[in-house]
Amino acid sequence: MARFHNIFGPDGTWQGGREKAPAAVCRKVAEAPNGGEIELWGDGKQTRSFLYVDECVEAVRRLMESDFTGPVNIGSEEMVTINRLAEMVMEIAGKKLGIRHIPGPLGVRGRNSDNKLIRAKLRWAPRPAAARGPGKTYAWIAKQVEQVHA
Predict the structure, then answer these.
(1) Of 133, 122, 148, whose CA–CA distance to 85 is shortest?
(2) What is the pLDDT of residues 9-27, one digit of tens each?
(3) At residue 65, what are phi and psi to the nearest 5 degrees?
(4) Nearest Cα to 73, choosing from 106, 54, 51, 48?
(5) Which H helix or E strand runs over 2?
């Protein structure tokens, strides 16, 4: 049994309120004109860990090929603030945007995956998602936004 933690990437939900934070931030940045602003719920200091979909697939493959039968987390231990996530996406997009913090659902202040068990049983740990995933995800979502607004 696998417990997935904040999986994101291209071809995922990117609008409608059910998307993960990386997709929502990518959409907001793609929709905003350069020099504009985006809205984020809360103060943006809440932290999350995000796992890029390619890493998730690798973990699931290893789990399926193993003889391990217990529950295991598939996620990242890399903590990123929502503000930092927004800054990374703006850098990728080449946009200078302001951030307006608004009231909204926050969830817990911080959450990440405990990967001790998956490292021990499957000898697997994800590579940092922050360096790879947002670029591919932003490019895909920006294309979707462009098609919707065309």
Answers:
(1) 133
(2) 999 999 998 898 999 999 9
(3) -85, -5
(4) 51
(5) strand 2-4
